[in-house]
């Protein structure tokens, strides 16, 4: 196990909501002495895996920790120390693994609406590094040496915003024997939304890419064997419930409009 002692930590934050990025990073007292790079993605509007791969290539010749985070991720306590972390692993702050037939989330944190309301506490608390199967995309910490020694390990640019961290974890574990680990951190994620069609297209993509894999993700099972896991457990998270309600409301409106059209024609 190779440990990086004094390698620098760089935090990269692509954003489209400048106010949110400023609140979570520029004005964050816990990051005041940190090397933070805010990346304006409003005009280019490129997928995060593409941005992250570009950043990797730009920093590959240097020994450094790269922390890729979403604009709505707010550190609310002291940041973890990277000095004694192994460079040949992938780290995050929220991840999942199976316990029997049940997916279990590690990395307790606050999840809320964009304005900070309707806070939910998510995940089990961790007080030391915890091995998991996949990480949530909200935050991914890697060392450049990991990628320098593994040219086949990169972010999948066929994905744009969802599931690229999960893909990286599956690739790392299945093809490179790399561990995936959750680190203790107090934080809030201002993103209690709902899963989109883009997410399900990503699930279909990963099912084809990893036909012999079935792992737990934040919002669903992932991989070609996901259906085997779904036979024993059904995800019932608020994000999925909201999506189902939206679909049901749309179907109800469609039926009502169809009835009105039928009445008019009759």
Folded structure, characterized:
By secondary structure, the chain is of the alpha/beta class. The chain is built from seven helices and 16 strands. The strands form four sheets. Strands 2-1-3-12-5-13-10 form a seven-stranded mixed sheet, sandwiched between helices. Strands 4-14-8-9 form a four-stranded mixed sheet. The longest helix is centred in the last third of the chain and has 28 residues, at 238-265. It is globular and about 50 Å long. It starts with 8 loop residues before the first strand and ends with a helix. Mean pLDDT is 90; it is low at 247-251 and 254-266.
Topology at a glance:
Layout (H helix, E strand, L loop, with lengths): L8 E7 L2 H9 L8 E6 L7 H12 L5 E5 L3 E3 L13 E4 L2 E5 L2 E5 L2 E3 L8 E3 L7 E2 L2 E2 L3 E5 H5 L15 H13 L2 E4 L4 E3 L7 H13 L5 E2 L4 E2 L3 H5 L7 H28 L1
Parallel strand pairs: 1-2, 1-3, 5-13, 8-14
Antiparallel strand pairs: 3-12, 4-14, 5-12, 6-7, 6-11, 8-9, 10-13, 15-16
């Amino acid at each position: 196990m190779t440990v990086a002692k004094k390698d620098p930590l760089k935090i990269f934050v692509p954003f489209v909501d400048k106010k949110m990025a400023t609140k979570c990073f520029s004005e964050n007292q816990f990051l005041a002495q940190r090397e933070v790079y805010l990346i304006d993605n409003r005009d280019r509007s490129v997928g995060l895996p593409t941005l992250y791969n570009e950043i990797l290539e730009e920093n590959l010749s240097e020994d450094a920790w790269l922390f890729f985070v979403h604009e709505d991720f707010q550190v609310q306590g002291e940041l973890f120390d990277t000095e004694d972390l192994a460079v040949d692993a992938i780290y995050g702050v929220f991840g999942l693994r199976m316990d029997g037939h049940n997916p279990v989330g590690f990395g307790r944190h606050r999840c809320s609406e964009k304005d900070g309301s309707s806070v939910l506490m998510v995940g089990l608390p961790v007080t030391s590094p915890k091995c998991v199967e996949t990480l949530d995309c909200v935050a991914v910490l890697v060392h450049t040496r990991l990628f320098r020694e593994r040219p086949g390990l990169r972010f999948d640019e066929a994905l744009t915003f969802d599931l690229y961290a999960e893909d990286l974890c599956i690739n790392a574990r299945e093809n490179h024997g790399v561990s995936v680990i959750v680190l203790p951190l107090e934080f809030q994620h201002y993103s209690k939304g709902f899963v989109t069609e883009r997410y399900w297209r990503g699930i279909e993509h990963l099912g084809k890419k990893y036909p012999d894999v079935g792992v737990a993700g934040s919002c669903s099972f992932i991989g070609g064997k996901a259906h085997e896991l779904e036979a024993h457990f059904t995800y019932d998270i608020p994000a999925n419930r909201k999506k189902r309600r939206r679909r049901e409301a749309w179907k109800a409106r469609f039926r009502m409009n169809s009835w009105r059209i039928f009445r008019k024609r009759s």
